[in-house]
Amino acid sequence: MKENLSAQTVLENLKAGNERYMANLASTKPLTVAPPELVEEQKPSAIILGCSDARVPVELIFDQPLGELFVIRVAGNIIAPSQIGSIEFAAEKFGTRLVVVLGHSHCGAVTACVETLINPDQYYSPNLQSIVDRIRPSVYNLHEIMTASDAEVDIDEFVNRAVRANVRMSVSQLKHGSRILEDMVTHGDLTIIGAEYDIATGRVNFLDS
Length: 209
Description:
With 209 residues, this protein is an alpha/beta fold. The protein has helices spanning 7-26, 58-61, 81-94, 108-118, 126-146, 155-176, 179-186; strands at residues 46-50, 69-73, 98-104, 191-197, 204-206. The mean pLDDT is 89.
C-alpha cells in the first residue's frame, strides 16, 4: 500500500495535473486517456467535494488516474451531513490529508440562489429550494453590499463573486461543522482548501483561506 503524501505534495500534484490538462486543451491532438487498471484497494491522495455539473469532470481536469481522487459531487458543492460523513470516512479510513472544495464558473445552483435574491417570487421545487437555501447564507451579505447603492446589479459579476463566497463558506463549514475534521485540521493531519474551476479556460484557481 502506498504511503500517505503530505497535503502540500498532493496540492502541487493537482496543480501540475491541471497544467497538463490545459496543455491538452490547447493542443490540436485529441485527449488521450490511459486505459483504467483494476484497483483492488483505493488509497486516494485527495478528497474533492465538487459540483454535479457535467462540465466539471474532476479526474480529467486534474489529470489524475483511477483511484487517486475520492470525489463527492453535489449541485452547488454544498455541505450537508452526507457530504461531511463521506469526507470523515475518507480522511479516517484512508488517511487522505487534503480536501478541496471545488466550485466552478457559471454554476447553475449558485445562479439559482442569486435569482431568488434578486427576484423573491422566483419558484423552485422544494428539493431544489433546499439546495438554494444552503447556498443563501454565503450570498446574502454579498447581495446586501452589491445593492446598497441602488445601482443596477451586474448579474454576471454577482454570480462570479457568489461562486467564490459559496466555496469559502463550504470550506468553513467543513472546518467547523465536524469535530473529527476540526481535530484533524488542528493537529495538522488534514488541510481543507477551496478552488474554482474556470469552464472557459480549464484552469483551476486555488483560493486563499
